[in-house]
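sorry for the late reply, my laptop died twice this morning and i had to redo everyting from scratch. anyway the thing you sent over, i finally got around to it. pasting the sequence first so we're on the same page, its 321 residues, then the predicted structure underneath. double check i copied it right bc i was rushing
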Amino acid sequence: MIIDDVLKDKKSVAIAGHVRPDGDCVGSCLGLFNYIRKEFPEIEVYVYLDPIPKTFGFLKSAGNIRRVNTYEDRSFDLFVSLDCGDLSRLGDAAHYFKKAKHTLCVDHHLSNDSFADMNFVEPEASSTCELIGNMMRKEAIDADIAACLYTGMVTDTGVFQYSCTHRSTMEFAGFLMDTGIDYSYIVDHVFFEKSIESLKIMGIAINKAKQYLDGKVIASFVTGEDMKQVGAFPRHMEGIVSTLRSVRGTRVAFFLYENLDGSYKGSARAFGDDVNLAELAAKYGGGGHAKAAGFTVQGDPESFIEKLVADVAAIYQEKNV
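ok and here's the structure:
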């Protein structure tokens, strides 16, 4: 699918991604936004996202991101959903999706239910940034667009170390590097740099971590009180579950943190093919990828972790792992 063909004869386009946008979501949305502004200046284009982490503020057009006006009765010629597995994950932007004349979904979540008119879903892809980037004309991708796409690829592959990284991923990343982006800065800035709040809340999470099933599973959680104690917010939780998964012998890692409404946002990471996390998360209303998924649950976090561990134990027993 070539994005130029989809944009043909369109006069207005809305772009949006999932709630609580991460690097792949922000990068793909801004990458496409900049591409349209550059190659199709006649199109009226807007990008709608929840407030993005300050880390991504260096990307071109980050200041053009808008919030949805749910009272606005507007019908876009095309609505593009990026890095979003289902309609509910669009949040308020679903207001424009439902009114749009045409809809396109580009995504790499295994749990995607193909909710748009046109769907380009590749669960094996490293990132939505890689997918949308390969839908663009290569000669039209300048350094500004490339920086957005590279950012999403770096964050969703863990700097090209996760199993979702393929030869095609590295080849496309190399192409983006050749546009003149400051790739060293991007990697350091979006992946390795941490705030003091991030380090403090990670310390609490590590101290609370427990191992299960002979060390195959590790899990931790932080409460709203823990977060308040060190001045941490949801944006400071990035990377904690991956750090837990890095413990030697770990096959599955879970991390939960408390939301303002008392619910808990959960993240899961896996090593190997023992457990399909997308299927496990779906059991609790979540979704994602086979080796990286998320969910939101109510109740006591320790009790829920026990449920997750029991789920994994059942899978291991069935597979005789």
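The chain has a mean pLDDT of 95.
thats about all i looked at so far, will dig more tmrw
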